[in-house]
């Protein structure tokens, strides 16, 4: 099984200049907010399109975690597997921002009772995700657990629920450009200061995965990954049912993808020799039996210029946002233009509505079951994961409105927010 081995959840010991990362930073989903049925003023195709995009990201996550390596296959399969790396996680994060807005309404929320109730709902979900995600890290999974990161994402997004699309776009740009620089803080901040923060961090004391990791040095550092959340929130503020809006988004998505990936290629191959240096370092690290990660082994300049999967550079974040926009708009447009597909696509849409449950189950299976020993090749494992997750989601949704873990998020959030006056 092509499992990744993340850093052990050790205490911060003063050496936070490296991240002690998993060899491959895999893509992970979470449906940290309910299915977007709570959105206001949204067309059916818009809502179902979000579910479809989320389901595609789930399948992409499966491909990254249990599927064959892209280098081991050819043709379309290789292209799809390569495409899934890095971009599945980015799509999930962007969809988290979309769902936050769909839950609260397309217009910015105010400071009235309704706005306060929405903020309480989001805050309760965030805290549950932080606690539950921290507990999930204690199983020492072979892949990074994204759930606590989403808890922090939602807490950081709370003040932005009252902002309009232009302000959210500005925040996304600032996070994409400045966040990667902020994540280099452990290179210059005295280790003693970081250790002092970690020593009083309850999350770190419980699991070794505390706020420093969640914000700066983990698999999905909030300092830079909030760019995806803010971008998703900005997109959801728009009238995605309007064809003209979708056309503009397609142009913006294509431009961002070209700027991100194309700009990185020019910066690394034409204006500097970063590409050659990164390849040489990677070859040396792997020849020594290690796994190359630019965030561990690259210089600050290399970390800012490359667009490798999960490098979290400004270029990668920009390109990933562009791709995520294109996938989301394609999903919405398909179901708007072809309503007849909504029925046949039902099983896939069911997966998209209960991604937190599917994610946690797949984490547990990878941790406690040697699925490849039972099923054979990674290709077979991937197929079984996709089919089993889809059948499970369909069967569950025939009886219940929400997935089991989605309900555990929804019920206390609604009850507590209902007490707000």
Automatic annotation (TrEMBL):
Keywords: Membrane, Transmembrane, Transmembrane helix. The chain crosses the membrane at residues 88-105, 126-147, 153-177, 214-236, 317-335, 347-369, 375-396. Residues 1-42 are annotated as: Disordered. GO terms for molecular function: acyltransferase activity, transferring groups other than amino-acyl groups. InterPro entries: Acyl_transf_3_dom (IPR002656), Bact_Transport_Assoc (IPR052529). It holds the Pfam family Acyl_transf_3. The keyword Lipoprotein does not apply. Residues 49-393 form the Acyltransferase domain. It comes from the Bacteria. This is Putative membrane protein YeiB. It comes from Thermopolyspora flexuosa.
């Amino acid at each position: 099984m092509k499992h990744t081995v993340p850093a052990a959840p050790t205490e911060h010991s003063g050496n936070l200049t490296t991240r002690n990362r998993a060899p491959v930073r895999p893509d992970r989903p979470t449906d940290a907010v309910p299915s977007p049925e709570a959105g206001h003023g949204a067309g059916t195709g818009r809502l179902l399109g979000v579910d479809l995009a989320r389901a595609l990201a789930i399948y992409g996550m499966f491909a990254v975690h249990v599927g064959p390596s892209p280098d081991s296959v050819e043709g379309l399969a290789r292209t799809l597997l390569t495409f899934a790396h890095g971009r599945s996680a980015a799509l999930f994060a962007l969809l988290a921002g979309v769902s936050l807005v769909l839950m609260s309404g397309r217009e910015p929320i105010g400071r009235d009772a309704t706005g306060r109730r929405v903020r309480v709902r989001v805050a309760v979900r965030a805290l549950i995700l932080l606690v539950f995600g921290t507990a999930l890290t204690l199983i020492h999974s072979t892949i990074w657990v994204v759930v606590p990161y989403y808890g922090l994402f939602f807490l950081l997004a709370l003040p932005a629920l009252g902002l309009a699309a232009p302000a959210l776009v500005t925040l996304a740009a600032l996070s994409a450009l400045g966040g990667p620089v902020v994540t280099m803080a452990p290179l210059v901040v005295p280790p003693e200061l970081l250790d002092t923060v970690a020593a009083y961090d309850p999350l770190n004391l419980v699991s070794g995965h505390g706020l420093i990791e969640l914000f700066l040095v983990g698999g999905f550092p909030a300092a830079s990954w909030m760019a995806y959340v803010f971008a998703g929130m900005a997109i959801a503020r728009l009238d995605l049912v309007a064809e003209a809006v979708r056309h503009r988004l397609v142009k913006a998505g294509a431009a961002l993808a070209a700027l991100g990936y194309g700009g990185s290629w020019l910066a690394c191959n034409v204006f500097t020799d970063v590409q050659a240096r990164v390849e040489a370092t990677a070859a040396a690290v792997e020849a020594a039996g290690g796994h190359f990660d630019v965030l561990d082994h690259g210089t600050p300049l290399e970390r800012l210029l490359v667009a490798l999967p999960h490098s979290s550079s400004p270029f990668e974040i920009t390109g990933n946002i562009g791709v995520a926009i294109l996938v989301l708009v394609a999903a919405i447009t398909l179901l708007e233009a072809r309503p007849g597909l909504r029925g046949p696509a039902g099983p896939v849409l069911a997966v998209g509505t209960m991604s937190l449950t599917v994610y946690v189950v797949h984490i547990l299976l990878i941790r406690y079951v040697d699925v490849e020993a039972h099923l054979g090749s990674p290709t077979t494992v991937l197929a079984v994961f996709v089919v089993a997750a889809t059948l499970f989601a369909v069967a569950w949704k025939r009886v219940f409105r929400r997935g089991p873990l989605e309900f555990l998020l929804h019920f206390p959030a609604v009850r507590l927010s209902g007490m707000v006056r």
